[in-house]
Amino acid sequence: MSVDEVIDTFPAFLTYWLNVRGRPLDEQIERWAAEYMAPWPELLAMQVEDYASQDLDWRRIAREKVFPYLSERLPTMQDAYDNLLRLLAPVYSKAEQMLRFDSSVVFVLYVGIGCGAGWVTPYRSAPAILFGLESIAECRWSDSEMVAGLIAHEIGHLAHQHWRAQHRKPIGTGPWWQLYEEGFAEQCESLVLQSEIWRRASQQGGDDWLDWCQSHQAWLATEFLRTVDAGKPVTPFFGSWFDICGRSQTGYYLGYEVIQELQKRHSVKKIALLDSIEEYARPILEQMAGYDK
């Protein structure tokens, strides 16, 4: 396994931001696309298309969710950036040992429009992990421990996709797949770092996020099942701009618990290659919800 390349766009962002930080918001957004993103048209297109696929206007998201906060989050972005540069190679090397998989990778560091702190996707026809510094700063995942956890989590996604591609197994969609793939990446993060960091708690300001999830586990499992069976989106369980009872990203906790249960019977690689995800995950959630009592 090797790090093929680090595409570092942050110096270009700092130059762009120096020129626009006092300008009107709409001008900042247009120049972000026309100037800062100009050398990386594929990166721009991926972000715009991600919102288009959700029937969302990327400019509205940028105007409401991202650009008003860039100035105040710039020091946090700088810290995250410094830690990413320092930790990418060693965490990737550790993942090679702990997960026992072999894939090349391109890392992309950029300031985007809120598409996510980490994003595993082909880039320039190569396996890549994209790190959105604006989203990392929003989540307050900038210190060494949090950045290491984020890297390990995204490598978990990379390993998952790599193994499935090797065995010609498709990448799924839908709520059960999201629960499974995010839980799998959480488990990989824990295995690589040999600890449970639970970065999600830091986004809540270090409150009782984990204690709350554990004490409300049955209720969360019931709510997830109810939401899925009603055909409603599970975005409140996963999106950082959404919450359930004031807690964001509780679906990651549920997914992790599902994978933990599966690992009692299967290896990590076997779990990565499962089909018919609902057949495995639903009984575990129903047990968590107390349906069998």
Summary keywords:
4-stranded mixed sheet, 2 domains, 9% strand, 293 residues, globular, 62% helix, 15 helices, alpha/beta
Description:
- This protein has 293 residues and is α/β, with parallel strands linked by helices.
- The chain is built from 15 helices and 4 strands.
- It has helices at 10-20, 25-36, 41-52, 58-66, 70-99, 133-139, 144-166, 175-193, 199-203, 209-215, 217-229, 235-238, 250-262, 268-272, 277-289, and strands spanning 2-8, 104-110, 118-123, 126-132.
- A 4-stranded mixed beta sheet has the order 1-2-4-3.
- 40% of the residues are buried.
Strand content: 5-15%
Counted up, domains total 2
Structural class by SSE content: alpha/beta
- The number of strands is 4
Arrangement of strands in the largest sheet: 1-2-4-3
- Topology as a string of helices (H) and strands (E): EHHHHHEEEHHHHHHHHHH
Low-confidence stretches: none
Tertiary shape: globular
| Main sheet characteristics | 4 strands, mixed
Total number of helices: 15
What percent of the residues sit in helical stretches (DSSP H or I)? 55-70%
Residue-averaged pLDDT: 92
In whole angstroms, the N-to-C terminal distance is 47 Å
Using only C-alpha atoms, the radius of gyration works out to 19 Å
